[in-house]
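Entry 14. Ran structure prediction on the chain below.
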Amino acid sequence: MPNPLRPAALAFAAALALTGCGADVTSQADGRTGESGADRHYPVTVENCGEEKTYDKAPQRVVTNDTGITEIMFALGLEDHMAGYVMPDDKGDRTSVPWKDGYEKTKWLSKERINKELVLDARADLVFAGWNYGFNEGEGFTPAELERVGIDSYLLSESCRNGQGKARGVMPPLEALYTDLRNLGRIFDVEDRADTLITSFRQEVAEARAKAAEGDDRLRVFLYDDGKDKPLTSGAYAGPHDIITKAGGDHIMKDLKDSWTTVGWETVVDRDPEVIVINNYGDTGADEKRRFLKSYKPLAGVSAIRNDRIVVLDYVDLVESPRNPAAISSLAEDLREFAR
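Output, structure tokens:
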């Protein structure tokens, strides 16, 4: 399996060194107090999934749901503003990222689903989650329900609903990441930190794109998340779209105006991907998914299967997270190898 951090870890670590780590970043507000001692940074207003939200002060007891969302907070050095995080233990290695100390400093509240009782017990003042990243009407856990009990919410921008039923996606995936970094930078008064991260990430992506194939030289790529009767895959508004296209691939499901969604196997066969990227997580691991793909008879004639061009990336590389730029660099290297 390719190492999603191999080209970017040093660059990101350098960015961390420039800006400092952990709670020290939150002291930026100290230089903006007037004679009365009032913090002149607040109130601040940001737009989140089409809604303007105003903060009179930085939240102090944030509960996050899922790996990518939690690591956005860690990358911004906001552990001291967190009551804890909720995530299973099967969604990626947490020991080799530049912000790994965040996991040691912050309480792991649950490996099960996030719910209202859990965040109330944690005395949360804000829940950072998203539609299908914790928030779900079917389970009664929504921003509206939390508001009723006095808890604020911030929605992951990748998960914003676009008004077409429950379809998600209102901006390109990397812009969703940068939008959340900028918004959280303002909410927590760590704008310099957010700007440094965004600059570092843009540079990493630009370097990968400079070496990537273009036009007709791009290999056709399909993202396989899971599913046997119908595959769960990525549309234009989930992380894999930008990861694939900026790495020099042609995302075969780019016409799907949604984030994570299902398609028919006949569509996959018809579009004949030359490379398949497996999303590695859950009870059905990458090896089992690979065996299924290679043994599934309808796929036997697909170029990626015939030529054994299968790449594995971890879940947290592919959902919105600070690991996205490194995943682009990693996949770009794999695509160049396949094209030789």
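The first helix runs from residue 9 to 19. Will compare against last week's run tomorrow.
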